[in-house]
Design goal:
The protein is α+β, with helices and mostly antiparallel strands. It has a single domain (about 1-160), classed as 2-Layer Sandwich (Alpha-D-Glucose-1,6-Bisphosphate, Chain A, domain 4), CATH 3.30.530. About 35% of the residues lie in helices and about 40% in strands. Helix 1 (about 15-20) crosses helix 4. The longest helix is centred in the C-terminal third of the chain and has 28 residues, at about 135-160. This is DUF2505 domain-containing protein.
């Protein structure tokens, strides 16, 4: 299953990058989502910046018919590797992740691109289940959890940028 989302921020690429790789910012995203558990880490790896995210949904977020495949809670883990900025501030990143004890894999790409007075961030993700019988249900569940997280992240970033948080 594919997921493509994008948004624009009224800020320079450097400011957007600083916000979205900030540990406190990422923790606030999870607090807004009211997830049961989360972990956020960032580290420099040569010229790249690595952002590792892991979170568990609340048990009520997993429907009864999917629980036999996914368990009581959905556990998701992602690694985003942000590469150095180009001359005009644009950045690209690679995304890898998994959910449901590795039965779902996530791969993709994200970018931050200056667009006039704004910066656009885009996500192109591919979510694949290795369990044929439950695959479509699990893919839909994970895709929806990621979509909700990204939309919440977009909203919080808009607040940080506007100073209204």
């Amino acid at each position: 299953m594919d997921l493509r989302l994008s948004t624009s921020y009224a800020a320079a690429p450097e400011e957007v990058f600083a916000i979205i790789t900030d540990r406190t910012f990422q923790e606030q995203v999870y607090e807004r989502l009211r997830v049961s558990t989360y972990d956020v880490s960032t580290l420099d790896s040569g010229e790249d910046v690595v952002l590792r995210l892991r979170w568990e949904t609340r048990s009520g977020d997993v429907s009864t018919d999917v629980r036999r495949f996914a368990g009581e809670k959905l556990v998701l883990a992602q690694t985003k590797i942000w590469h150095p900025a180009h001359d005009h501030g644009a950045r690209e990143g690679d995304i890898e992740g998994e959910a449901v004890a590795g039965r779902i894999t996530l791969t993709g790409h994200t970018s931050i691109i200056p667009t006039g007075d704004a910066t656009t961030q885009t996500f192109d993700l591919h979510i694949v289940a290795s369990t044929p019988a439950a695959g479509p249900h699990l893919e839909a569940l994970v895709t929806e959890a990621i979509r909700i997280r990204l939309e919440t992240k977009f909203e919080l970033a808009w607040s940080w940028i506007s100073g209204s948080f």
